[in-house]
Amino acid sequence: MDFRTACEETKTGICLLQDGNQEPFKVRLHLAKDILMIQEQDVICVSGEPFYSGERTVTIRRQTVGGFGLSIKGGAEHNIPVVISKISKEQRAELSGLLFIGDAILQINGINVRKCRHEEVVQVLRNAGEEVTLTVSFLKRAPAFLKLPLNEDCTCAPSDQSSGTSSPLCDSGLHLNYHPNNTDTLSCSSWPTSPGLRWEKRWCDLRLIPLLHSRFSQYLPGSDLCRQNAFQVIAVDGVCSGIIQCLSAEDCIDWLQAIASNISNLTKHNIKKINRNFPVNQQIVYMGWTEEREQDSLQDRMYTPKFLALRGSSLYKFMAPPVTTWDWTRAEKTFSVYEIMCKILKDSDLLDRRKHCFGVQSESGEDLYFSVELESDLTLWEKAFQTATFLEVERIQCKTYACVLESHLMGLTIDFSMGFVCFDAATKAVLWRYKFSQLKGSSDDGKSKIKFLFQNTDTKQIEAKVRGFIFQPFPFHIFWLPAMTEQKKIKSPLKGKGERMKGL
Predict the structure, then answer these.
(1) Is 99 helix (H, G, I), strand (E, B) or coil?
(2) What Gene3D superfamilies does UniProt report for this protein, alphabetically (predicted)?
């Protein structure tokens, strides 16, 4: 892993890719600061002709010592062509740039063998004469059995003179009297020359995933079932990476954290650019993907991707990231940040097997349940919500609520600079006043009643000065208090249901 700057991370590694219903195949991932590249191996012409990959025609001669020097696997019985699985060490240098391990044999001396069984291809090669012209193409997605090791003593891998039966699961050797320890030097003149042509096996781009506004998931779509050491990345335009299978759990987490870090950095940079077009009180604090749990548990799809944004005084919930100014008016739902309550859920509060979840309760009592992929994503959301709430409280400065105390209509003012003031609604007479530094605790029933605990500055005793406050409408103050007490550097241990706001 290469760390270029604090805001940019690059990473390269080998993984398996499950693409649709195909068997997993080996790919290379390369993570740049703004893109994830998924690459597969291919054989390309790198000199003499335009850059391309495709079929090649190669002529080779059978040697007295070493024969063709090739081993093959596969066949039509496995729905693939026969593939070169080994090239002998003595002949590797002569075949450089001509044949490669992984090449599928398509034609032999003009005979189409694409759909031939393994034994049929072996027989064609045995009877091909001293000079053989092969048409080959590199097979980029070879089945797993092609990776089986060569077994020189395997009874199903006969020599070129053997009359035994070959097997598509083992390497059928096509080498007269060849042995790995043979040190005879082969004449270079016996091999074909292709002046001006040079072929190389390289990693070529299979899929490019731009990271801005991309999302990734370890879970099966819409469920709480987590894949083992695997994930997928989905671009904002819907292009999917396929299922990326890592070698270990540690490797999987490393990739997810690296991808999440680059997505986060791109999002922050994008927010800065967008905020140039918005006034100070409408600045974006947070944008990012989550998955919302459907309240109707009878549905097959438990979770749906949602894009959340904290901008100005509002929390926006979108189906897709907002790109234009008009998009901000088309949010699926909008909430005032000081009228909602956020709860970071502990393990005991989780509703299913998904981790890293949080809940949002609105003024109407609507409960929303969200899941993010990593703990770092959850921390990022929590800090952003704190910031958005504090900025809105700082902007509003003061808010007064109508309430009832002992059947009397009262007014409760929460002032950002002064603290709490309770007064008679009819006479405006102040009944009591407390600073934020005197607030030592609060609790509520989650609906309309709240209890404050203040400390008397003279006696140092805790006084429950306010009991049974009934607020109409929803008690917005329980969302104000954490931001205000934090600004005053006062610890306010919330209790009861009000404890859901602790730490915000």
Answers:
(1) coil
(2) 2.30.42.10, Pleckstrin-homology domain (PH domain)/Phosphotyrosine-binding domain (PTB) (2.30.29.30)
Euclidean distance between CA atoms 149 and 170, whole angstroms: 8
Strands (E), 377-500: 398-405, 408-415, 419-424, 430-434, 439-444, 449-455, 462-471
Q: With left for phi above 0 and alpha for psi between -120 and 50, is residue 129 left, alpha or beta? A: left
**Predicted model pTM:** 0.73
3-state DSSP assignment of residue 362: coil
Crossing angle for the helix pair 375-396 and 249-275, to the nearest 10 degrees: 30
pLDDT in tens, 417-437: 888 998 998 899 998 899 988
For the stretch 181-193, what's the b/e string if a residue is b when 16 or more beta carbons lie within 10 angstroms of its beta carbon?
eeeeebeeeebee
- Assess whether 463 and 377 both reside in one domain: no
Pair 84, 70: CB distance under 8 Å? yes
At 184, list the tokens. 């005879």
How does pLDDT run across 234-268, given as a tens digit for each residue? 999 999 999 999 999 999 999 999 999 999 999 99
Containing structural domain, residue 89:
49-195
Contact predicate 39/203, CB 8 Å = yes
The whole-angstrom separation of Cα 361 and Cα 315 is 12
State both tokens at 224: 């709480």
Which alpha helices (DSSP H) does 361-445 contain, by range?
375-396
Q: Domain with 159 in it: what CATH number?
A: 2.30.42.10
- Other C-beta atoms closer than 10 Å to the C-beta of 266 total 20
261 in a structural domain? no
Tell whether omega for the bond before 473 is within 30 degrees of 0, i.e. cis: yes
Query: Is 354 found in the same domain as 294?
Result: yes
Q: Angle 81-82-83 (CA atoms, 0-180°, nearest 5)? A: 110
For residues 307, 311, 315, 320, the Cα torsion angle rounded to the nearest 10 degrees is -20
Residues near 109 by Cβ (< 8 Å), separated by ≥ 6? 128, 129, 132, 133
C-alpha 493/C-alpha 249 separation (Å) is 38
Query: Of the candidates 445, 481, 439, 478, which has an alpha carbon nearest to the alpha carbon of residue 462?
Result: 439
- The amino acid that residue 460 corresponds to is K
